[in-house]
Amino acid sequence: MYFRWVMYIFLILVIPVSSAQESIGEKVLFVKLNTPSALTETIKLAEILLSKGQDVEIRLSSGTYYLEKAIKLKNYSSSNLYIVGSSDGNTVISGATKVTPNWEVHNSTVYKAKVNIPDVDQLYIEGQAKIRARYPNFDASAGVYNGFAANSIDPKRTKHWKNPEGGYVHAMHKGRWGGMHYQITGKGADGSWKLTGGFQNNRPSPLHKKYKYVENIFEELDAPNEWYFEKSSKTLFYYPENGDISSAKTIEVPQLKHLVEIVGSQDKPAKNISISNITFKHSLHTFMDSKEQLLRSDWSIYRGAAIFINNAKDVVISDNTLVDLGGNAIGINRYARNIKITGNHISRIGAGAVNFVGDPSAVRSPSFTYNEFVGIDELDLGYGPKNDLYPSDSIVHNNLIHDIGLVEKQVAGVQLSMSKSITVSHNSIYRVPRAGINASEGTWGGHLIEFNDVFDTVKETGDHGAFNSWGRDRFWHPKRNEMDKLAKLHPDLFKKDAIETVVIRNNRFRCDHGWDVDLDDGSSNYEIYNNVMLNGGLKLREGFERNAYNNILINNALHPHVWFENSKDKFTNNIVMVGHKPVSSYHWGEQVDYNLFSTKGALNKAQSLGTDEHSMVGAPMFIDAGSGDYRVKQGSKALQIGFKNFDMDKFGVVSKKLKALAETPELPILILAGEEEGQSKVFDLLGAQIKSVENLGEQSALGLPEIAGAMVLSVTEGSIMAKGGIKPNDVILSAFGEGEVVTSQDAMRAYQANRWRKKMALTISRNQSTQKVNVQLRD
């Protein structure tokens, strides 16, 4: 995009005029206005100038523009349109309407007011989001949904509801594979509530028995900061904190799903548009609009966003703040080329941050649900996409993304679906309910994922990763035996969809409720190197040609799940700290070797599987693990197996402004061999403080046959281990059926490698007798 600076349009809020006032000079056009409608008129004027070959810059002055409808931009010329906020950073574009309620007392705690707007799905007072009446009440400390209850819609509990139609039920998938949303539409003959919805998850299931809540029910208006809107009478009810209604003299109520639309067509794309230095706020929730299935992924999606880019090219969205949005922040759809999303701060949004989504018409023989499959005789065996209706050659760089998915849980910081060659670099992504970065399928690869800092992920769901992908493309079949047959007959079929390699390099990932990198069902054609994986390790489920090398897997290892006989996978030159964790894998790809293990037992286990003939054992000798510098020192055996040091200070955002705001992940305590770390080290295992049994006195006191095991020193009340029945002086002898626990490090390694499971099976010694205990890790 070239800057020719021919025309400027200044929008000045402080001078009230009835119409645009023009002063035309050779290079400057001033338009003074103070209303959103005048902004719309200015954009129309800009389009005329653009069509005449003139570059135009619209400068928005400080203040808040409350939109009556979305701003529509459709430059088709070779000229450039720039929309820029004020230099003081105080330009706000809001999809809300401002209302001054005339409050009156409803009862001892609640006020009410007539509000002449169609609906209220969010309420902001003094810039703070208030809580739609819900059960259970909002609890910021609750890990899932800010509060959940199994009896949320139990007819026995809800029999006092008088008119719940229009209320919403939010529930986790039965397997915690994201969330689902339902609207209450009536009452059944058996007293249960009729619900419509659940289509938000493309792997449908019953509502989770435990993780659910209900909102928008008048009778649940029972806590400070809650509100309820009665549509039939257009009455807003509000429960102010401490009974003080004075702060609610003016309220903001979102009314628009989209704030800006940059929309063209495949033949005539919108282009040469730049938007920068603006705060975008207040869009509507869209959880009941997330209906479109994304091929055979676990997602359904709403094809829209606060900033919606559809059939466009050469668009820059830079240095903006997107906050307090009900749905997606930025959506890039169908035909899209050279889209640059850079330097933005995205937080407190209801759904996903940046979504790239192509059109299914570009996919050959698409299937849309998990169990759907097009037979080989009917399959289009052509190569790559059928048309150009997909995003490609675009960049997501230096964005700070956090606290997203506040309502919708099957979301990501960056989502890639039916896209090609998207660069995702130097982003900091954290506090997300599911993946930080997600590739929804293999179509069509070529992505570059580098220098990102992704952590605090999969916070409310499960069976996922900080980076997650699926590859349920044409070669994939829901029945493994059928897929094995297909893979033998057509071994390169996966490359007809995953046509270019996805490169994941130089990232720092941490996932505490799954894998740091999870290449799930069918994910193929990946190159993974120079990554620090802080907790969950690397999972490679069935797929082809994944080459993972020169990675550091802290306290974890490779998780090979159901590999193909002819996968051609490689895992070499990596630093791992426990043995490989295969699940129904009997084939080991092209090469699994030349890795460094931190214990002899871990290497022995790997070699017993027929891998790692040339791998070695030794302490990694990190330069400074306590500060996150996992480069190894001279003399480390890692260098002997081919590992090469890489930079540890380039993860995440790079701009000075965003670096000052960005958080970084908690660094784990290294769990090395006992002789390296000291046998007496005490670890916290899910609320139980454990140490190695290390002398005859402890052996005798505990009644053990030998000096071995991890003894429990204390158990924190209410912790996972306490709930599992673990008590002080218990001794852990084995965990997850992985052999003997000789030291506390063995127990911690077993947990780190298997923490994604639902239960931790323990063998313990208690009062000189051996017992089996199952500790519930998650539902």
Write the layout of secondary structure elements.
Layout: E1 7-11, E2 21-24, E3 29-32, H1 36-51, E4 56-60, E5 63-66, E6 71-73, E7 81-84, E8 91-94, E9 96-99, E10 104-105, E11 111-114, E12 124-125, E13 128-129, E14 131-132, E15 134-135, E16 168-173, E17 179-187, E18 193-197, E19 207-215, E20 226-230, E21 235-238, E22 251-254, E23 260-263, E24 270-276, E25 279-281, E26 292-293, E27 300-301, E28 307-318, E29 321-325, E30 330-342, E31 345-349, E32 354-357, E33 391-397, E34 400-402, E35 414-417, E36 420-425, E37 428-430, E38 437-439, E39 448-450, E40 453-457, E41 465-469, H2 480-489, E42 502-505, E43 508-511, E44 515-519, E45 526-529, E46 532-533, E47 538-540, E48 546-549, E49 552-553, E50 558-560, E51 570-572, E52 591-593, E53 596-597, H3 600-608, E54 616-617, E55 622-624, E56 629-632, H4 637-640, H5 656-661, H6 674-677, E57 683-685, E58 688-692, H7 696-702, E59 710-715, H8 720-723, E60 731-735, H9 744-754, E61 759-766, E62 769-776
- Number of DSSP helices? 9
- Please give the largest β-sheet: 25 strands, mixed
The oligomeric status of these chains comes to single chain
What's the gyration radius in Å?
28 Å
Q: Which structural class should the secondary elements be placed in?
A: mainly beta
- Choose one word for the global shape: globular
Q: In terms of per-residue confidence, which ranges show pLDDT below 50 for 5 or more consecutive residues? A: 1-8, 11-33, 674-679
Average pLDDT: 92
Share in helix: under 10%
CA distance, first residue to last residue:
51 Å
Number of DSSP-assigned strands:
62
β-strand amount: 25-35%
